[in-house]
Amino acid sequence: MPIPTTSSRIRVLECIILIAGVLLLLTLGALWFTSPVTSGGVHPLLIALGTFFAMLLAAASFAYILYQRPSEIHRQRLAEAQVKYKARAELNEARYMEKSDLLEITLGHMNQGIAFVNADGKLLIFNKRAVEYSGMDEAQFAQPEFALPVDVRAIFAEQWKKGEFGPNGELLPEDIRQYFLTGTGTLPKSYVRRRPNGSVIEVRIEPLPSGGMVQSFTDITELVAAKEAAEAGARAKSAFLATMSHEIRTPLNGVLGMATLLRRTGLSSEQADHVETIRNCGDALLSVIDDILTFSKLETGMVEIEQVPFGQVLLNLLSNAVKFTPQGSVRLQVRGRHGAGEPGIRFEVTDTGIGIADSARDRLFKEFSQADASINRRFGGTGLGLAISKRLIEAMAGTIGVISTPATGSTFWFEIPLHVAEAPPEADQAADAPGPEAALRILVVEDMPVNQKVAKGMLRSLGHAVDIAEDGEAALIKVKSRAYDLIFMDMQMPRMNGLEATAAIRALESGRSIPIVAMTANVFETDRDTCLAAGMNDFVGKPINVPDLAAAIARMSANAPKRPQALQSSPPTIEFNQARFEALAEHVGPEELASIIDGFLEDTGRLLEQLEQAADRKQADEQVRLLESLREAAAVLGFSQGAQECQEATRSLDESAAALAKIRGSLQLNVARSQVLLSMRAANSRAA
Fold this sequence. Notes:
The protein is an alpha/beta fold. It contains 21 helices and 15 strands. The chain has a 6-stranded antiparallel sheet. Strands 12-11-13-14-15 form a 5-stranded parallel sheet, sandwiched between helices. A 4-stranded antiparallel sheet has the order 7-8-10-9, covered by helices on one side. β9 and β10 form a beta hairpin. The chain is elongated.
């Protein structure tokens, strides 16, 4: 049976008091009218009823008073509680509204798009950036079909319809496209997509414990553009290095080659000393070019470490130790590194030379820097050797350092992980130490007359018979008419270049098995791969020398594995190269050189006319080929300014008229200077 509450009891008492009061009044009224006061008696029953109702009224009043006080206290407390909780509710609501406004303002001012999706795949919250990056209109979310919460698949379908992901969704990664189209797979933590307007959006997904997720959308267009620009710059630098390699090494090949051939002729001791000086200077120049190009390739990450028993770093340290030790000793120590980690090997080069001050050590491994500015004047060098060594060692996951005391000596050391070298095949050993060989019939395919003479003289000195072809078409004719044991093939030639000639020779029945060795100044791994892919067997870099030619012949004769060589180059000069011109005059004679220049002028007029025609027909490839031919011809004669203008013209084909005018002017100045030098040489000869 339920227990009555205080409030219900009070309501019952109030009814009893009211009824008792009414009955008492009725009783008293009846007594009054039926038994007047003047009458002498009162009816006993009425007296009893009046007494009863009076007692009932008194009891009800007492009980009412008894329960009324607690009720009032209860009502008071209840009212206070209501006020208290109402104030708290109003405060909480105000705080919630404040936080909600703050969140809305924050989301609205973020540069990132933000969206919250619950565990059911319903979009609950998003900001303006998210709408902007989605390709939808914010007004669409006011429509019933996109009223929040809305299924994200409905939004995806609308984006697809608007072409936000491309006509066929190709702007989306494949896994994301399949996830929304077929429901297969899972969303990755992040992915990148392009928009139709060209901008790039990075999408990141953070899962929540509830099963939902928060998506962020960031515009990374500028970052991607900067990355692509950097990659384009690296490719341009690579192309520049390849071009400069050909520009420098082709004429240097003529200088060193002619010096080598001249040394083998009957010379007096004084003449032999002069020739040796030429060779030493040429080798020194080649070493400087190598250092500059190696460092440039290291900067662009284009160097691939080759696992060989001894490397450039060790030779560099030993060379420095000898150079900076006028008297005393240089000692090389090699020891293994064993332990719990990866095995390694440590090299130490210790000298008793001039030493290095503590303040100069920080500059040692920086490019174009030496410990003392006077060192460059006293000992020479570019200041690149140690910088290159440091980068090479770091590329091999190693470390390099130095311990030095001024006026006492230095110890340069480096440690690298140990990779055991395999014994070289017998064929390679034979190639490294070429010995007497049977005479071969060799075809040299080279368009530059100077390089033709150099290669022919070197190969004849090795006892081989040599034929010359001035380009790929001439080589193809010679291969059809005569059998050759080996072909040395230049890469850049008119009419038919080296790659095209190789493909044509390989298509002949008689040319399928002839070894073909690329002979070019192009430098990079991609150039070597291109040669091998075209059907060539090996790769010899310019400037060529007798040992390299002999080694290549040995490898081809022994059918040894291909070991192509990658070379490097450096920037050109824009001045008239008088040293090259004088050397050429010495080799071929003034009269022959004058005849060559006359022929060059005729060829130049023809090439410039063809260039104008190619420019009118918008034949860019033909323009580049003709400019390259003219550049090489000018460079061989020492007309460096004209050669440089030809090189510049390849970068501005749209302004061919102005470029050709510059080429004409530069070549006219170069030719005029060459004629003056020839006249002076002739006058000196007559005076003698």
